[in-house]
Automatic annotation (TrEMBL):
It comes from the Eukaryota. PROSITE patterns: CYT_DCMP_DEAMINASES_1, CYT_DCMP_DEAMINASES_2. The keyword Metal-binding applies. Residues 27-150 form the CMP/dCMP-type deaminase domain. Its cofactor is Zn(2+). GO terms for molecular function: cytidine deaminase activity; RNA binding; zinc ion binding. This is Single-stranded DNA cytosine deaminase isoform X1. GO terms for cellular component: cytoplasm; nucleus. The lineage of its organism: Eukaryota, Metazoa, Chordata, Craniata, Vertebrata.
Length: 211
DNA sequence: ATTTTCAAT
């Protein structure tokens, strides 16, 4: 069942300011995370939960989300008894920045140890990914290995977020200038980041050769 | 041409 409380909806201006995917995102000193949690309760029955979070002093929003996980996903680790069924959840989140290196490590560890929990990440902008050798780039590759797919948000994702998380007061989503071009540019960039790097190729080759 | 980044002042 879906219940929309006004208090869980993002103000329109906040959404637009923080999710605009411009190249030089000056002043975005906060990160927003809009999430949908789906829980499979039967062969053809799902429940939904959704909302948004913002980073708090000293705590990146991804780690804040992990803190709320137990409340969002009851029964994720079983209910304490023996032999009870672990529940399965899938989470989709839409973040204004992609995760930093540290958050990526933490998320990779967490999600590779929790196979009954799936995460898909959509991001509006790439955080500190300009340098070829940035740790943030490593982090995104690490997430992929842990089964967490990261995707750059496109028009349909912004549209979905607007419909789902924003206190839009029935107004339609008005895309900003260059939304599409920026999205395509960032998607290409992420694609390049996800290509296995050369040293990794060498490592695989060495492994094949038994070296 | 150059600009920014889960702040720090």
């Amino acid at each position: 069942m879906i219940t929309k409380l006004d208090s869980v909806l993002l103000p329109r201006k906040k959404f637009i300011f923080h999710y605009t995917n411009m190249r030089w995102a000056r002043g975005r000193h906060e990160t927003y995370l809009c999430f949908v949690v789906k829980r499979r309760v039967g062969p053809d029955s799902l429940t939904f939960d959704f909302g948004h979070l913002r980073n708090r002093s000293g705590c990146h929003v991804e780690l804040l989300f992990l803190r709320y996980l137990e409340a969002l996903c009851p029964g994720l680790w079983g209910c304490g008894g023996t032999g009870e069924r672990r529940l399965s959840y899938s989470i989709t989140w839409f973040c204004s920045w992609s995760p930093c290196a540290n958050c990526s490590v933490r998320l990779s560890q967490f999600f590779s140890r929790t196979p009954n929990l799936r995460l898909r990440i959509f991001v509006s902008r790439l955080y500190f990914c300009d340098m070829e050798n940035s740790r943030e780039r490593d982090g995104l590759r690490m997430l992929k290995k842990a089964g967490v797919q990261t995707t750059v948000m496109s028009y349909k994702d912004y549209f979905y977020c607007w419909q789902t998380f924003v206190d839009r007061k029935k107004s339609n989503f008005k895309p900003w200038e260059d939304l599409h071009q920026n999205s395509v540019r960032l998607a290409r960039k992420l694609n390049r980041i996800m290509q296995p790097c050369e040293t990794e190729d060498f490592r695989d080759a060495f492994e094949l050769l038994g070296l």
